[in-house]
Each structure stands twice: as structure tokens, then as C-alpha cells.
């Protein structure tokens, strides 16, 4: 009876391993599809783990300086460039609205050719060249110009707030991702050490199983732990 119960436990452990294997295979396939879409590389998991292709990831230069990443965003990000252009356009609109307050000055010139008739002397009616300056100020547009200026100032303030909001969110995302990256590096080192220890434990259990010191259930359980440490 005890042997039958042990066999049942072994079968349960095997089924659990198979279930986890299917689940992790699905997760792996999902990540492989993501990598293909992001990089264009269509590789198998075995190829990724080989020295030839895995070096692509090992040699990837991860920028871990927040200031450098912010500078890269401000230099290359299209959304940021669009926001800056909107702010610049709003600033130019403000300048145009302010200029409407100033008077307009026009330089006027004309040439008059006199043609005396009858007994008039031509010397009394010489041709003339006239120049003048016209200065005009539309006092009735004051309220309209003021409203237009207020509208442009509001647009500029909105554009500036959008830039500030974009930069704050970007900085938060950068800090968050860098924190995750740092934690992932430390977790990877611990997981790698745990996997090596689990493999060594499984090797010892195999030897003890062959000597009759460990049961098949113990061996399967140790392999389960090694598998968990690997994934």
C-alpha cells in the first residue's frame, strides 16, 4: 500500500512538472514572438542560448544613466519634438498678438507732373516729388487685441505644461525601469546560484537513489526543485 501511495505521489509530481512545462513553454513562445517583432530576428530558444547569438544580448549596451537617457529622449523622441514645436509656435503667436498694439508706419511717395496751360508760365508750375509718412493707430481694436493676446498666452502656458508633464512622466519611467533592471540583475545572480545548487542536489539524490538511500519520489521532487530554479 505504501508503495502504491509513493507511486501516486510520483505520478502527481510528474504531472505537475508537465503542467509547468506546458505553461512555461507558452510563456517562452510569447516572448519569442515579442523578440521577433521588436528585432526582426527569428531564432529558436536553443539558438539564443548558443554562444553565437546569445552574445547579441550580452554585448547590448544598456544605458543606466538617468541624465543620459533624458538627453536621448529630448534629442530623438518625436513626441517631445512635437511638443517643443507647439510651444515655439505659441510663443510666435504671442509676439504677433503683441505687435498689433503698436501703430503702423507707412512711407508714402508720389511724383506730380504739372502741365500749365494758356498764358501760365511753365516755371511757375514745376514738377513735384512728394514724400510723407503716415502713422495710424486703430484705437478700436484694443479689446480685441487684448483678448487675442490672452488666448495666445493661454496656448503657450498649455504647451509648456504639456512639456513639463511629458518630462516628469519620462523621468519617472526611466527611474522605474532602471530600478527594475538593477533588481533583475541581482535576482538573476541569486537565481543562477540557486539553480546550480539545485542541480548539485539532484545529482546527489540520483546517486543516493541508485544506492537505495532515496526513494523515487525524493528524486522526482529534487528534479522538480531544479526545474523551478531553472525557470
Automatic annotation (TrEMBL):
Gene3D superfamilies cross-referenced by the UniProt entry: Outer membrane efflux proteins (OEP)
SUPFAM superfamilies listed in its UniProt record: Outer membrane efflux proteins (OEP) (SSF56954)
Keywords tagged on the record: Cell outer membrane, Membrane, Transmembrane, Transmembrane beta strand, Transport
Localisation per UniProt entry: Cell outer membrane
GO CC annotation terms, alphabetical: cell outer membrane; efflux pump complex
Pfam (any one): OEP
One Gene Ontology term of the molecular function aspect: porin activity
Family: Belongs to the outer membrane factor (OMF) (TC 1.B.17) family.
Official protein name in the record: TolC family protein
Organism from which the protein derives: Salmonella diarizonae
Amino acid at each position: 500500500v505504501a508503495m502504491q501511495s509513493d507511486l501516486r505521489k510520483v505520478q502527481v509530481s510528474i504531472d505537475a512538472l508537465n503542467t509547468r512545462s506546458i505553461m512555461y513553454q507558452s510563456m517562452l513562445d510569447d516572448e519569442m514572438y515579442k523578440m521577433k517583432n521588436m528585432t526582426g530576428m527569428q531564432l529558436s530558444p536553443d539558438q539564443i542560448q548558443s554562444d553565437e547569438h546569445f552574445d547579441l544580448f550580452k554585448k547590448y549596451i544598456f544605458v543606466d544613466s538617468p541624465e543620459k537617457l533624458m538627453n536621448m529622449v529630448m534629442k530623438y523622441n518625436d513626441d517631445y519634438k512635437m511638443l517643443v514645436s507647439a510651444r515655439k509656435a505659441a510663443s510666435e503667436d504671442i509676439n504677433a498678438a503683441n505687435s498689433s498694439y503698436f501703430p503702423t508706419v507707412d512711407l508714402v511717395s508720389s511724383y506730380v507732373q504739372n502741365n500749365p496751360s494758356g498764358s501760365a508760365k511753365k516755371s511757375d508750375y514745376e514738377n513735384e516729388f512728394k514724400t510723407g509718412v503716415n502713422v495710424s493707430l486703430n484705437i478700436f481694436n484694443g479689446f480685441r487685441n487684448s483678448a487675442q493676446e490672452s488666448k495666445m498666452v493661454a496656448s503657450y502656458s498649455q504647451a509648456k505644461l504639456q512639456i513639463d508633464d511629458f518630462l516628469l512622466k519620462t523621468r519617472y519611467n526611466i527611474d522605474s525601469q532602471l530600478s527594475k533592471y538593477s533588481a533583475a540583475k541581482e535576482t538573476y545572480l541569486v537565481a543562477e546560484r540557486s539553480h546550480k545548487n539545485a542541480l548539485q542536489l539532484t545529482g546527489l539524490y540520483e546517486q543516493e537513489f541508485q544506492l537505495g538511500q532515496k526513494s523515487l519520489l525524493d528524486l522526482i521532487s529534487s528534479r522538480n526543485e531544479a526545474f523551478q530554479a531553472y525557470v
